[in-house]
Specification:
Blueprint: H1 16-26, H2 29-44, E1 54-59, E2 64-68, E3 74-76, E4 79-94, E5 97-109, E6 114-123, E7 132-137, E8 143-144, H3 150-160
Antiparallel strand pairs: 1-2, 2-4, 3-4, 4-5, 5-6, 6-7, 6-8
């Protein structure tokens, strides 16, 4: 009994994946790489941004360390504006408010050797972390820089940036 091979299948096979994936497979491959790259970039850049705090001095009697962020130094004539961070080892209290660190924006007059505070934000945790427990934005009065103080160290950093 002779037999023949037929070039077609005896029963049709349908692939359900093909029908659902047709719009997905019709896009150019570059779109997929671009989309994947975008998602990867977003995931990698979604971390918190930290300032580059540089220690400029410490007062061991009070357990305080003062840091500054050199990227925040702004010069306008003889006046420099800069952010600094005061970090304590033990809890500090101001009235009914307790804090471990505070950030302060200060103005330094390099010609007259004086400073004044512009704004302060107090935090419940170290290094500006935790909850904001108090915040004030008010220009203080100009004060002369005390020689040998941490204020002198801050003034030196700010005015050497010129």
């Amino acid at each position: 009994m002779p037999f023949t091979l037929r070039p077609f299948r005896r029963f049709p096979v349908q692939c359900s994946v093909r029908y659902h994936a047709v719009p997905f497979l019709t896009l150019p491959l570059a779109y997929f790489f671009g989309f994947g790259s975008l998602i990867t970039l977003l995931l990698l850049s979604s971390g918190p941004a930290y300032a580059e705090w540089v220690s400029i001095g410490a007062n061991n009697q009070r357990g305080r360390t003062v840091y500054t962020d050199p990227d925040t130094i702004r010069l306008k004539g003889d006046v420099v504006t800069m952010w600094s961070l005061n970090d304590y080892k033990t809890i500090q209290t101001m009235g009914s408010t307790s804090y471990l660190s505070y950030k302060v924006q200060t103005e330094y007059d390099c010609a007259e050797e004086r400073i004044r505070k512009l704004a302060s934000t107090f935090f419940s945790g170290n290094m500006g972390s935790g909850d904001v427990v108090y915040s004030i934005s008010k220009e203080g009065k100009w004060q002369l820089v005390e020689p040998g103080s941490l204020g002198q160290s801050e003034w030196d950093v700010a005015c050497d940036k010129e």
